[in-house]
Amino acid sequence: MHTRRNFIKISSIGIGATAITGGVVKWAVGSSSSQKLSGGIKSSPIWKKFPTYCEVCFWKCAGWDYVTEDGQIQKIIGNNDDPQCNGRLCPRGTGGVGMFSDPDRLKTPLIRVSKNGEQTYREASWDEALDFIAKKMKEIAEKHGPESMALFNHGSSGKYFTHLLNAYGSNNVAAPSFAQCRGPRDTGFDLTFGESVSSPEVTDIRDTRCLVLIGSHIGENMHNGQVQEMSEAIDKGAVIITVDPRLSTAASKSKYWMPIKPSTDIALLLAWIHVLIYDDIYNKEYVAKYAEGFNELKEHVKDYTPEWAYGITTLKPELIRNTAREMANAAPSVIIHPGRHTSWYGDDVQRSRAMAILNGLLGSWGNRGGIFFKEGFKIPEFPHPEYPKPAWSWQDTLNGRYQFAKEAVTNTIIEASIPEEGKEHIIKGWIVSGTNLVVSIPLKEQLMKAMQSLDLLVVVDTMPMEITGFADVVLPECTYLERYDDLRATAHREPTLALRMPAVEPLYETKPAWWISKQIGERLGLGAFYNYTDLKEVLDWQLKQVGLSLTEMERIGVKKFARKTPVYIEPGSDHQFKTASGKIQLCAHELEAAGFDPMPKYTAHAQPEDGFYRLIYGRAPMHTFSRTANNRNLVALMPENAVWVNPQVAELWGLKKDQYVWLKNQDGVISNFSVKVRVTERIRWDSVYIVHGFGHHHKPLTYAFGRGVNDTELITSIKIDPIMGGTGMRGNFVTFIKDKPKQEAKS
Amino acid sequence: MAIDTRKCVGCSDCVVACQTENNVPVGFCRDWVVEVVDGTYPNVSIELRSERCNHCDNSPCVRCCPTGASHFEDGGIVLVEHNKCIGCGACIEACPYDARYSHPDGYVDKCTFCIHRVREGKNPACVSVCPTRCMHFGDLDDPNSEIVNILKNRKFKSLAPEAGTKPQIFYLV
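Predict the joint structure of the above. Result:
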């Protein structure tokens, strides 16, 4: 009789319109408190609140942790003064307390030991673990030089370990967020405008009249500020154009959904450029004033007509023309959104360049509703001795490749960790902080070889992610709700500062990363770089330098500052872009000089063989990467991923809704676990789609273990972008296996 | 309450916010998100909407409750008085929206429109957290309220109107 509801209902209750039947809600605000409340309904108690900024994703929304009388974190609510969230956290931020309360958290330091010939971990004291690390780091410095230590990081904690490595004598600091994610976009926009679009992106979505999304699924990627602004743009009647082989949430809200054949985006972009130029509807005044290379571009796109693109993209020429006109009509209040995860096919810098060029032709950079100029608030660095100059650095691991990489390329650091005869720059030790490399780096074989060759592998995390299983020492970090951290200084429309302070004491033996870094540093004789006993002193010192104090920030959480520079190009001003010539580079001679195409060209990419489907992956709004799959406050919303299959394909294979299948890729790799089939008209027949971050195979993640599939394990064909080293991951194809394959799931 | 399906992205923040605001036990929820897909590729549309108790004007749950636990609170919000509820589940069967569940503590539970917040002049937790601001809450009897204004100017529908329960949540389309 009693039904326990499925968590998110996917149903189709009858649709019909009805007239308003007259109001019923007649509450009075502030009505008599003597009114008897129904059982179980309490009026809001007075809880203590502590400021924080979120660490569930990189958007870092500021909020308040509400703590009950008995010391429990009851809820986390956005800070109204924070322009990054406007008082509204996303589901992950709202459910962030699940990171704190996760029963599977790392609880004590662990050291790898050999017991009866088998490797295992034993619990260790902090002193023991830290002494071990310091001893090994000293040995590495003596034997190979301090440059042979590297750091892989993501998130707030990375900064303390970067400081540690810099003080120790290495700047081999890499993050998967570059080569595995936003690197191509940053490089492409930088080559065009002299700077990239930052994070949070400087896209003026709020005031745009036309938003163009190329595979970017805002709303499913829950980059809070952007989602909020897209909603505002919908209210204001902005035209949204979404290019995606899948009917994404954003596509469903678009005036134009362009269901492109995957891997052909550059052909569409070139055709759009062609239409803007040859139909003479580009922003002539802007281009004449701020851009160079127009004639070369015009000649370059001469033959890239919409008819040419039709045969490649499967998008009708009229649709290509109409959408180009929509952009031109809205210009300069138009955004060709740069996207974020852009390492797709190996020619990703060129695709990003094509998107940047379109923005240039439409005049969006520096105009309202386009791309605005950010301004930040500079916080002085806490004084420390000058860092020693490393004898070599990550640039030397490139060996002449990836000349336009402005950040360290994870792949080459990993490569440098594999010993080979005559290798000049060798890496012997890693610290891994806040990134689950096993799931974020697709070059698995290389990664495994590298990890096997290291003298030291330290993993700092809050959770027993897969990467912890490879460590010599695992250090349990406390969550963002239990610690102070560096001030969040955001450069955006308004400069802001945000404070994170602990709402509760750290659980178990967990410690904040700043403390871990300081402890290792002091053991290495680098105490002068840590001239404080508590991070609070650093924060208070920094804040006092700018006329604030820690006490004040603990009260307000977020401080906004007035801008000193214009948000947009001022009329009549002679704006200089940050390129060498001060002009937008429609034709990038810099690329040409390095042996690359100065303007994007379309290259045909591999297509699936019969019976195979392109593996497309993306995000769900209630999860971040692989880090939330065990968060009990979020998992009920989406406990596992599903493979999206077009109904025609499902019929061909005899696949039923909710049936579990295994996926096998073009190289014969079979998924560790099975995945549920979602039969849906939202996906093209030549592709399948899964949400990234599932299929955990580490048993200590007791909830997430074995739920869904991990896309990274099926991504074995990598196309590396020669311009900046990005790992293109969208050239993988999978087929279905209906019966359980013989391989055993690894644990 | 009015919910704008053109803006909702189905992120389920409303669900998480409700759970933490109202201490909803793990595995249960008072609100949820529905996705309706229509058409065939590439002529496909989807509607996303956040659903909960419709606080019906003509509520079968109130009518069928043997103990009077299900009742109209001032202003027409439908509530369950936990102390009076015997957990018989008649209301769960009667609700055309499947908006109620059996709480592990033995009573029936559902959306209260966060009446404890509303009485303090705040919006329900789901409304106040929504990143897309797709939900609007207000007094349908006040001709000058924001919600009445929205309903005057936008096309809307309600769910399962054929059930005749006079639901009070309106979906803007």
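The domain at 2-172 of chain B is CATH 3.30.70.20 (Alpha-Beta Plaits).
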